[in-house]
Here is the input.
Amino acid sequence: MLGAARLTSLRDYRQAGISIRLAVGGAVLTALALAAGLISLSLGPVDIPVDHVASIVLSIVGIELAEVGRTEHLVIEQIRLPRILVGAVVGMALAVAGATMQGLFRNPMADPGIIGVSAGGALGAVIAIATGATGLFFLALPTFAFIGALAATFLVYGIAAVGGHFSMATLLLAGIAVNAFLGAIVSTIIIVLPDNEALREILFWLAGGLDSRVWEHVHISAPLILGATAVILLASRDLNLLMLGDDEARAMGVRVGLTRGTLLAASALATGAAVAVSGTIAFVGLVTPHILRLVLGPDHRVLIPLSAIAGAVFVIVADTVARTIVQPAEFRVGVLTAFVGAPFFVLLLIRNKRQAQAL
Amino acid sequence: MTRDAPPTALQADDLSFEVEAKSLLERVNLHADCGQLVGVIGPNGAGKSTLLRAMAGVLRPDEGGVWLEGADLASLSARDVAARLALVPQLAPYAHGFTVRELVLMGRYPHLGRFEIEGPADDRIARDAMRLTQTEEFEARTLDTLSGGERQRVFVSRALAQQPRVLLLDEPTANLDVLHKLRVLDLVRRLVDEGLTAVAAIHDLGMAARYCDRLILLSTGRVLAEGTPEEVLLPEIIESAFGVESAVYRDPVTGSLAISVIGPAESNGSATAARANGQSGREDLQADAVASAAKAGRA
Here is the structure.
C-alpha cells in the first residue's frame, strides 16, 4: 500500500516540469549533502558533536557563534573538511562525466573512464611513484596523473577522428583498446618494480582513496571540476537532442561536432582532475546518473545538476564508511564503491536483459 | 509561368552526392513553391532519403545547392534552418526514456535561447501539435513503450511544434495503419492548404497521387520524371523506374489516380499464367480495362 503510494508520487514527480523536478530534487539532495557532510565531519578517531562541527564550519566561513576547542577546530579545518570537499568534487566530477558519457554514447552502461581517462591517470600516477618523481614536489602525483589522463583522452579521440571522419563507435572501441594497453603497462611496471614501498603505494593509489587529502588538493581540483560541470550544464539541452542521433540533432539546429567536442573535453577535464586527486574510484560515474535517470527521466537539464550533488553525496558517504568501518585502520573508498557498485551493475544488466526480452 | 507565381519555398539545384564512388544523387533538381505538397517517389535506394536529408541541411551535397526561402542553406546556421524547416525522419529513434511530451517540446529548441526553459506558450504549441496527430492520449508515456506507428506520429508532432514554414517528411506513413495514414496525410494536406510547404517521400504511389500537387520520380539518384501525378504516373514510366507492369486508372470511389501492379515487367509469362489460374488474375484484367479506359479518356 505504502509502496504503491510512493510509486505513484514518484511517477508524478517524473512527469512534472523541469523547474519542479530541479527544485524538489535539488532541495532533497542538497539537504542530504549537508547532512552527510556534517555527520562525516563529526565522525572519526576523535568524535566531535554535530553542533560543534556546525559552529566550526561557520567560523571557517567567518561567522563566529560559539567557542570550540582548538583541537576540534584543527581536526575539522585541516583534516576532515578538505578530505570531504575533495570527496564531494570528485563525486561531482565522476557523476557528471558519467551522465554526459551515457548521453553521448546513447548507452546507460557508459562510464567516465570509457575514453581512457582513468587508465591514463593511473599510468601517470604509477610512473610518478615508480620513478620517485613523487618526491620532486608536493603535488607531483596529481600532476602526473592529470597529464596521463588528458594524454590518454587525446590519444583515444585522435584514433576516433583518424581520416577526418569522427565516429562515436570508433571512440568506444579505441577507448577499450587504449584502456587495455595502458592497463598492461601498469601491470608491467608493478611486476618489474623492485621497491616494495613503492609497490604498496601504487596498489593503494589504484584502489582509489581520499586519505591525507589537504586544501591544496581542493584548490587544484575544484576549479577545474566546477568549471567543467558548468560547461556541461550549458550544453545539457543540446545533449538531449544528441541522444536522438546526429542527423536528428543537426536537423533540429544543434552544432553537432562542436557540441560533442565540448562535452567530451569537459568530461575528460573533470574526470582527469578527479582521478588526479583520488585515484580511480569505481562505479560512482556509472551508478549515480543511472539511478537518477530512473526517477527523473533522461532530460540532462535536470540530470546533470542533480547528478553533481548526488555524486558528491555518494562519495562522502562511501568515504565516511570507508574510514570509520575498520577504525583505527582505513578501508579504501574505491574498494567500497566497487563493493556497492558492482552488484548494482549486475542488477542493471539483468534488468536490461529482462526489458530487452519483453520488447 | 504566370506572373503572380508563388515564390519558391525550397529549391534544390543540381544536387550531387556520392559515397565511396557510388553516386546517390546525380544533378537532382527540385522546387517546392509556397503552399505546395511535393511528393518524392521512387524504388528502394533511389535516393529519396538522401535528397530529403540534403534539403534539410543534415547532409552536405558534393555539388549543387539548396535554397530555403531564397537563402543559401549553406550560409544559414543550423538553428536558423531549424526555425524554418523541420524534418520528420524515416525511422523514429527510441529516444531513451523521454516521454512523448518531452520529445514534442524538443521541437521548440530552435526557438528558445540558451538559458530559456520552455514556457506556457511552448507547452500550448506542443499540446496543439500532439492533438493534431492524436498523440496527446499517451503524452506521458516514454517512446520505447510505443509502437513504430505511434512513434512516427510523435515525430510528426515534434516537427509541427517546431512551427516550420517548410516541412520535409521521409516516409511519414510507412509504419502507419490505414486510418492513421489517412489522418497524417490529411493533416499535412490541410496545413499545406493553409500555407505550409511540404516535401514528402512517399512509398505508396496511390497515396502520393492522391495527396500531392506534384511528384518527382527518382531512380538510381536521378530524376526520371517530374510533374503532376497524371504526368508522372504513366505505366511506361512506372515500368522503367520500378520494373513492374502496372495499370493506372482513376479510382471510381475516391476520384484520384490508382495504380494496380500486375507483376514484374520481365516475367510476363508467369503473370499471364497467374491470370489464367486465379481470381487475382481476373481483378488484374479488370484493372487493365479500366486503365485503358483512363488512358483513352486522358488522350
User: Anything to note?
Assistant: Residues 15 and 64 of chain B are 4 Å apart (CA to CA). Chain B has two domains: 8-228, 234-299.
